[in-house]
Amino acid sequence: xxxxxxxxxxxxxxxxxxxxxxxxxxxxxxxxxxxxxxxxxxxxxxxxxxxxxxxxxxxxxxxxxxxxxxxxxxxxxxxxxxxxxxxxxxxxxxxxxxxxxxxxxxxxxxxxxxxxxxxxxxxxxxxxxxxxxxxxxxxxxxxxxxxxxxxxxxxxxxxxxxxxxxxxxxxxxxxxxxxxxxxxxxxxxxxxxxxxxxxxxxxxxxxxxxxxxxxxxxxxxxxxxxxxxxxxxxxxxxxxxxxxxxxxxxxxxxxxxxxxxxxxxxxxxxxxxxxxxxxxxxxxxxxxxxxxxx
Length: 294
What we know:
The longest helix has 15 residues, at 256-270. The chain has a seven-stranded mixed beta sheet with strand order 2-3-6-7-8-9-10, sandwiched between helices. The chain has a three-stranded mixed beta sheet with strand order 1-5-4, with no helix packed on it. By secondary structure, it is α/β, with parallel strands linked by helices. α3 (96-106) runs parallel beside α4 and α7 (192-204) packs parallel to α10 (256-270). α7 (192-204) links the parallel β9 and β10 (210-212). It is built from eleven helices and twelve strands. The chain has a single domain (2-293), classed as TIM Barrel.
């Protein structure tokens, strides 16, 4: 892990339009990620991040976070992990994300965090403490219910079953969480069986929702990396992508409409939410101790 210097940490985003998880601020504690996901959009050249698999922590990140939070006139929800998973391979020893959560707790902000790592279960105590006064929402990024396939798609991330185990730990601690089935990979994970298994596993783990965009994105940089992985693990599939999508950025599953109908049916069966509006309403419901947050 390397260290880089940055002038600012928080970005004001005001994502309140129910097209994504509710956020007031966005924050990435790291640049780069070592989960090795073959489809990661953050590899795209437009982000100007070379050596993506090398994790770089922002210098003085904890002190910077504390100073910037204290400078805000009002509290809000901080999104963490959109570009780089904060529970990378170094977090267990370095505990940078845990320290950031401690600062967020002290400053009485909320947190919205996405991860592919079961290590987040370690921080159930801090997340539960934050949730007593502010919104806490944890999105477990899980693309497949099959552990063997998840090892191919996300070679250094926790297995899908391990993520569901972590989800159960958090849900038992009263933390709002669910499954973020994103991306959905055409011709690989876009099946009714996969959706059914993920819905069942989410409900069994105490998750509250199952979300999906029914496709993926491919740009210069991420496309080359993805196609190389397809050649290694799914011979002939790259050519199928090229024929179906060319160089398109948004890659929708050809069965998107039928899969969406199936997801709605499975979510109703397991009492899971599947719209951002419903999820955000449940996630941001005011706490009695901090009604002024929103």
